[in-house]
Amino acid sequence: MGSILEQFRLDGRVALVTGATRGLGRAMALALAEAGADVVCHGLPAADDTAAEVAALGRRAVALTADLADPSLQAGVIADAEAALGPLDILVNNAGIIRRAPAAEHPDEDWDAVLSVNLSAPFRLAREFGRRLIARGAPGKIVNVASLLAFQGGILVPSYAAAKGGLAQLTKALANEWAAHRINVNAIAPGYMRTENTAALQQDPTRSRQILDRIPAGRWGEPRDLAGTVVFLASAASDYVTGHVLVVDGGWLAR
Predict the structure, then answer these.
(1) Looking at the predicted structure, is the pLDDT value of residue 30 above 80?
(2) Does pTM top 0.70 for this prediction?
(3) Residues 143-159: pLDDT tens digits?
(4) Are 243 and 176 in contact (CB under 8 A)?
(5) What secondary structure, in 3-state letters, does the chain show?
(6) Catalytic residue selected from 8, 160, 192, 220
(7) Is 160 a catalytic residue?
(8) Is the pLDDT of residue 127 over 80?
(9) How high is the mean pLDDT of the chain?
């Protein structure tokens, strides 16, 4: 099995990270590369800068673009990633969007877009990834990026809450089916992180103060705060962890 430090290494592994252009996805792609993985950096707009940073770490890297709101393009991302860097070992379903509107006024097009990107795309990518791993008898790791709203309802974001709650349950369902194939499926539930998706909250003085007052750590999370978590869940160190939603929130839920 090797030493404990060796269990966290990802040398020779190939990872696909969706939504890697900026924010959480970029930070996780770089963390995987630092641990030794080659990385396919999906993004819209293109994650060229992230791929360049991965390459600068001495890893193979490629930028891949596809609109995950389009169901016809979702499953094909796996094939494109493997055509670029070879068989995948790790899938990080990070890409996500958010639409804010009161439930009584929440447009159908916003509901459909959020569910497509945040829930249907992770399922279709995981299905294709899992199918390929099973066919070649190889182990693998899936890390879905959920949210605190997998546990809470939020305000003005019914589609986002529904999608992230569904993603947490999908994580458990896939874990149940694929554990026997040595495919671990887990999720990270970030707390309030400084990203574009939370810009509206950060810019609202009242809401931002309310959020900070509840976080025991006393600060918003930074994308880099997910680095150790994603490496753990993508590595041999987590081989007996599956179906788990790991919260990284500065203590928010404990409060």
Answers:
(1) yes
(2) yes
(3) 999 999 999 999 999 99
(4) yes
(5) CCCHHHHCCCCCCEEEECCCCCHHHHHHHHHHHHCCCEEEEECCCCCHHHHHHHHHCCCCEEEECCCCCCHHHHCHHHHHHHHHHCCCCEEEECCCCCCCCCHHHCCHHHHHHHHHHHHHHHHHHHHHHHHHHHHHCCCEEEEEECCHHHCCCCCCCHHHHHHHHHHHHHHHHHHHHHHHHCEEEEEEEECCECCHHHHHHHCCHHHHHHHHHHCCCCCCECHHHHHHHHHHHHCHHHCCCCCCEEEECCCCCCC
(6) 160
(7) yes
(8) yes
(9) 97
The answer to whether the beta carbons of residues 57 and 34 sit under 8 Å apart is yes
For the chain, list the domains and their CATH numbers.
4-247 (3.40.50.720)
Over residues 188-229, the pLDDT tens digits come to 999 999 988 788 888 999 989 999 999 999 999 999 999 999
d(CA 159, CA 19): 19
* Those residues with Cβ within 8 angstroms of residue 115's Cβ, 6 or more apart along the chain or in another chain: 159, 162, 163, 166
What's the rounded mean pLDDT across residues 18-46? 98
User: For residue 10, how far is the Cα from the chain centroid?
Assistant: 17
Residue type, 240: Y
Split at pLDDT 50, 70, 90, the class of 1 is low
Cβ neighbours of residue 109 closer than 8 Å, sequence gap 6 or more = none
Residue with tokens 């890697």: 20
